[in-house]
Amino acid sequence: MNSKTDYSWDRSHYLDINKDIKYYPKNIKELNLIIKTKINKDSFVIKTGGASYFDKSFGPGKHTISLKNFDKISINKKKLFVEVGSGVILKDLINYLLRKKLTLHTIPGGALISIGGAISANVIGKSSSKKFACFGDSILSLKVLNKDGKIKEIKKTISKYIGAFGSYGLILSAKLRLNELKSKNLLIEKKIITSSIHLKKLFDEKYLYKYSIINPFKDKNNFGIFVGADTYLSQKDMEKKITINKYLIIFIMKIFKIFHHQLFLKNFYKVIFLLNIEKKTFINFFDFQFKSSFAYLPHAYKGGLFEIEVLIKDINYLNKIKKFFYDNDIYPKYIILKKQYKSKNNFFYEFSNNGYSVALSFDNIIIQRNMKKFSLFFKSLKKEEIPINHSKNSLFQKAKKNYKEFKDYPHYNFKSFFSSKKLL
């Protein structure tokens, strides 16, 4: 980001600050005043953490609101919940909670995600379980600003707000269930994956946190790495690693892009494989949840990254995904796979069954050059992907009709519709 532009996380979209107006209200009174007097009947979008993909936080209106000043945190340790402002950045909340040996039940990997963003998108993490499948399962209540400018505390009808991208009101704060930690340290086990069937068995093993990094290249001896983490009890808490300066990381990423071609990536995955053969390590809880360098990966690519996350029914379908890459000689920068449970609650946005989330990251320029091939890829994904619960919702159907991107892939740009609406 510089003085003239404000990017999405993947750097595929940006606002021209000279043309688009961004507001930073300090309180609810100021927020209401901005909406009524400066925005009036125009459309506006909320962009706080800057962790969204594509144009999720970029609507057709010229007004953008950041809720970064809505940053209060209040813990009730006895009843194990925290009341937190929607502008609080997730990594800052986790850092604060860790001092009291507390954490959230669901922690997505994006360090820059705001609490409001996590609720609006109903994010998932590395610890999906039958009780806490997604972020929404931890929410006790919400405070929202409705279209009349009034604050309402939502409890009974909370499900329709979670994952609704602000369609029913502007989220101001939330009460979240907390989880007590026995230790701030984790024992990490890294295991070699031999096949998709082997990976399924690894995901059935008992770990607090688990995910896998899949090798996108064809290699019989290197399908990927499985990572499982459990609490490690010790007398002394491990210190967090020193966080490298943001601008230094960006500089390194820009140098790194020179080598970020397919031959380099293929050898990179071989090295990763060799370095992680049946490896056990100890790590601070915070360092495990957030990778500081990963947050700036899109800076390595001129056109940004093309990021998608889908949920597949059968883990063996991963073989077909990888085959598409072999056949077309197009490879993602990474494939991250996690086991995902269906929530018992009926949220506005959630997946309708148990499955496996697959996160794929591509160079956006490569996508644009090979759009016909990727259109076929997305159509094949549609057949295997677990549908989302709001697919029959009237808002969703209207968005599907209005946006041509749905012809190729139903989730690529659907948030454009929600962000384009005047929410209040």
The chain-level structural class is: alpha+beta
Indicate the mean pLDDT: 77
**Secondary structure: helix percent:** 25-40%
Task: Flag low-confidence runs.
Answer: 390-424
Distance between the termini: 28 Å
Main beta-sheet strand count, sense and barrel state: 7 strands, antiparallel
Strand content: 15-25%
Count of separate DSSP helical elements:
12
Radius of gyration: 21 Å
Strand order of the largest sheet: 15-12-14-13-17-18-16
Task: Tally the beta strands.
Answer: 18
What does the overall shape look like?
globular
Order of helices and strands: EEEHEEEEHEHEEEEHEEHHEHEHEEHHHH
Describe the structure.
The chain is an alpha+beta fold and 424 residues long. It starts with a strand and ends with a helix. It has helices at 28-39, 90-98, 115-121, 196-203, 246-256, 262-275, 285-289, 317-328, 364-369, 371-384, 394-402, 415-420, and strands at residues 5-7, 14-16, 21-23, 44-46, 63-65, 73-76, 81-85, 102-104, 139-145, 151-154, 170-180, 185-193, 209-214, 224-231, 279-284, 305-312, 334-340, 355-363. The longest helix has 14 residues, at 262-275. Residues 390-424 have low confidence and may be disordered. The protein is globular and about 60 Å long. Helix 8 runs antiparallel to helix 10 (371-384).
